[in-house]
Amino acid sequence: MSAQGIIPDANEIMKRQRAAGSDTFGHDVYKITFLCDTEQPPLFGAKYNFQLDGVVDYPKFLVQFPTLIKLALKHGLRLVEKQRFDEFYSESVQSRRGLIEKIQALETFPGQSQDERERQQNVGEYSHAQGHLDQKGASGSRFQKVGTLSKSEWEASTLYMFFAFQKMKTNWDKNGKPGQAVQSDQARVVKNVLIPQGFESYQKNYVAFVKTLKIDADENEMGRFAKTANLALGETFTKYGINDATSMLGLREEDKTIPLKNLTIKTAICWQALLEFLQHTESDVLDAYIVDLTAFCNYIKNFADTPTLCNYIRQLAYDPSMTTDKLQNMYFQSMMQVLLEIAASYDLGDEVGRENLKKVLAEMLACGDLGEGNVKTTMVIFERLVGDVEERFRFCVDLINGILETSRADVSNTSRSLVDEYLEKNPDKSLQMKISSLRLNIMDLKEQEMDKVNKKD
């Protein structure tokens, strides 16, 4: 059993209010007028008047979706999907094209009647449709019409978001709260016997227990280890609580993070499992354990910039073998993956935090030290940070150009001082002569290149 629906997206509404700089904003198709404080809107009762295309005109209230998730969970409903309307449309347009045509959800461009064609004379409102037809015509297509919405109608549509909740197969505890889902006999044995016995054999030490599950021969095994540990920890948190876990992880009270020097792959996975457990079962107290998004962005940046702040990774660097370098990089990427997945679990309703996260992720993509899994998770987060496809495309193009421009820069002189310093300490005169000869050749090649450029001009 599932419950699906659409509601106005509170984050999108507040984003547009901030951009407009006014409590009233919109255009001919929709108009919103806030009837409450917009600087600090209340959690409940944030009232606004909503007008839509001259048909709808009545007061509504902002629905804070994280609060809705918590309320639904208390009544045995878990969130299975949440998407902005533009995301939902992009995913569904191909598979539901027949339904869209059947209910005539789009208008024909150019219009079939004189009135429709006159209304579509506003070039700015339908430039995207005309551009699509022009592109099709240039490729030899015979199609001369297209189904579309005006830009104003699309802006009104993208005020909404889609959601789906699913009824959990649960046992209800004595306090009327939903418990764990009904499971198979094998799963019940693992949950009630194997995991508790293994956990208790390590004196109920969460980090030591996770260490026993650890396999790290390659990236795939690291991924399986993380998933297995996460599931096992969820069961132990349910049975034994979280108080011991927070003290074992050493979460700092001032910023709710593990000090970087103490961060390991085991503590990172425990941290992630703890936050996921709270999100799904004790969401009322989650704020007491989760760090502010901007502060968490700084935490990720510090780890990305200087991984050796972690004693765990720094110790791996002491072995001079090439194998250690590869292992060190694998652990860095695995720990970064956990941190990125924690970042992906944020609601991203904080505009300042969103911008900081976008900046940090862009810098990390440019550095080139991320693994394939890191990049995939980063791009999933970017899809939520930058909802508009065209804006996201431009952002990625700018990012790629920035990386390429850096690589195209003249780096011929960047290592000169290091080479000179090495030569001063090296008594081998023949090596000095070879390097000097190579430098002269480079200078000659540069002069030849400039001569050819000047002749071409």
TrEMBL record:
This is mRNA (guanine-N(7))-methyltransferase. The keyword S-adenosyl-L-methionine applies. It comes from the Eukaryota. Pfam families: mRNA_G-N7_MeTrfase (PF03291). It catalyses: a 5'-end (5'-triphosphoguanosine)-ribonucleoside in mRNA + S-adenosyl-L-methionine = a 5'-end (N(7)-methyl 5'-triphosphoguanosine)-ribonucleoside in mRNA + S-adenosyl-L-homocysteine. Residues 1-168 form the MRNA cap 0 methyltransferase domain. Residues 110-139 are annotated as: Disordered. GO terms for molecular function: mRNA 5'-cap (guanine-N7-)-methyltransferase activity; RNA binding. InterPro entries: mRNA_G-N7_MeTrfase_dom, RG7MT1, SAM-dependent_MTases_sf. It comes from Culex pipiens pipiens (Northern house mosquito). Keywords: Methyltransferase, mRNA capping, mRNA processing, RNA-binding, S-adenosyl-L-methionine, Transferase. Its EC number is 2.1.1.56.
